[in-house]
Design goal:
single chain; alpha/beta; Rossmann fold; seven-stranded parallel β-sheet; about 45% helix
């Protein structure tokens, strides 16, 4: 799979550990080394700003997507290659998904989790066949992945759907897995209006 753009979901806070910022920088540099454009939430603060700055400093391209109401509350990154202002969160997420060939979550809060879970759900439904992954820094996602494994054992998540969410502790290895990813065959989502 040729990856032109990767969407990165991450926190607007830097988090407690320096390792979160360090890993965001490593991911940013890894994207540029592979000629991959960053698509993200458009802010200059927290892990979001760190990954964007790392890509820009390495000479890469960064596309920010942020809703107008949120833009008033958060600091928009003014040095991006492109910035898109949307009317709503739904429009933001849809545009980010449309522009991206894969999706990675770095450590973040409720919004980060909601975004990666929604795009993973879209993969489960066959709406897209793009890779989704967690960059598990300092064990940040350990309890979440244990929960998901438990939900799979309890038969609330199918094994083929669980396998769609790739998890790695190393940015380069995760991107390697993205480049060879083949989505399992799932029943295609059918829009009711089309039937």
């Amino acid at each position: 799979m040729h990856l032109k753009s990767i969407c990165v979901y991450c926190g607007s806070s830097p988090g407690r550990l320096d390792a979160y910022a360090d890993s965001a920088r490593t991911l940013g540099k890894a994207l540029v080394a592979r000629g991959i454009r960053l698509v993200y939430g458009g802010a200059s603060i927290g892990v979001m700003g760190i990954v964007a700055d790392a890509v820009l400093e390495a000479g890469g391209q960064v596309v920010g997507v942020i809703p107008k109401p949120l833009a008033r509350r958060e600091v928009i990154h003014t040095g991006l290659t492109e910035i898109h202002l949307t009317k709503s969160m739904h429009e933001r997420k849809s545009l980010m998904a449309e522009m991206s060939d894969g999706f990675i979550a770095l450590p973040g809060g409720i919004g980060t989790l909601e975004e990666i879970f929604e795009i993973w759900t879209w993969a489960q439904l066959g709406i897209h066949a793009k890779p989704c992954g967690l960059l598990n820094i300092e064990g940040y996602f350990d309890k979440l992945t244990s929960f998901l494994d438990g939900a799979t054992e309890e038969q609330f998540i199918k094994q083929e759907h669980r396998s769609m969410l790739l998890v790695d502790t190393n940015a380069h290895k995760l991107l390697d897995r993205f480049s060879t990813y083949e989505a399992p065959v799932v029943r295609q989502w059918i829009d009711v209006e089309e039937t």
